[in-house]
Amino acid sequence: MKRFALFTTILTAVLVLVLPFIGGGGPALQGSLTSAATADETGLPIFATTPSSNSSSFSATDAGLAAVHQSDAETAAASAAATSATTTDTEHLAQKPVPVPVVLDPTTAANLTPSQRAAARAAAGQSCPSGAGGGGSAPGGSDGKGVSGTTSSDIQSFSAQFNAIRVANCLDPIPSSNFRYDSCMEQRLYWMAEDPSEDPGNTWGHAGVQSLAPGPDGQLYSSEVPEFGCDGNLAGGSGNDGATVAQKWWDSLPHRLALYKPSYTGSTAGVCIYFAMTHGGVPDEPSSFTRAAARWASC
Asked: For the domain that residue 241 is a member of, what is the CATH number?
């Protein structure tokens, strides 16, 4: 009887301890945690655990589950970042392809034929330019001593021929709006044209030039009248216009290097060609005798 009573006592104790975990009323998993699904686009894990209103029942088991979900969130975020890094190339966004530069030796570039320039461009994946035109305007003034200044016709015929020569030689043309009248070079041309010598070339040359022969008073014009105005590439003579002086400058190797710059391979968008021309001279040079100046510079 005592054995039966002891057995009954032990069985009752076992049922009291084990039954809650076999049925649906366990204290930890259902009483202290609530599961909720979230939308994928929020960037949060698919399942998040939150403590119940009874914070005291949030057990070590709950904390462990929360830590697991937090780890899942961090893993998802890291995975998203890795995916973004592999699909978005931020390092090379600014490294867009640029044209291969055409490299020409300045010492030989002036003598290259059009076909040789075309071959150099082809090696860099480029082709020769096509189409050209002139532009520019000038006031057509005078010095008050019988010498006429630069006209729009002068600069337009010069620029049209200048660009035609460049394109024919596989060189990029200068934008038509980048041909500019230069009053300072015109002043220097006036100074040369005002020499009273009968020889139109008596005072002809670049800065510092001296007249070839003295005047009736025995003095050099270049000594009596200090030069003024700005220097440039010079060309001129009887029967010349803007187009003929453009050709003269190309045909002269030193002037070709200085004014056409055949070794220059950069953009011509910021290049300006400055030009001036005078007609006639003192004492009685005809208007068909011209003096011209031009230079290459930035705009």
From this structure: 3.40.33
- 257 secondary structure, DSSP code: I
Pair 147, 280: CB distance under 8 Å: yes
Q: Evaluate whether residue 217 is within a structural domain.
A: yes
Distance from C-alpha of 11 to C-alpha of 97, rounded to nearest angstrom? 84
Residue 168 lies in a domain: yes
pLDDT < 70 regions, the chain: 1-110, 124
Give the CA distances from residue 118 to residues 184, 253, 266, in Å, rounded to whole numbers and listed in that order.
Answer: 37, 20, 16
pLDDT at 298 (0 to 100): 95
Strands 233-238 and 285-298: antiparallel
Q: How many domains does the chain have?
A: 1
Q: Which residues contact 278 (CB under 8 A, 6 or more apart)?
A: 143, 147, 148, 149, 150, 186, 189, 190, 193, 290, 291, 292
Task: Compute the distance between CA of residue 29 and CA of residue 184 in angstroms, rounded to an integer.
Answer: 95
Which residue is associated with the tokens 């001296």? 210
Question: What is the reported pLDDT for 109?
Answer: 65
Tokens standing for residue 242 = 């803007």
52/110 Cα distance (integer angstroms): 87
> C-alpha angle with apex 246: 197 to 164, nearest 5 degrees?
165
Q: According to the model, what pLDDT value does residue 208 have?
A: 95
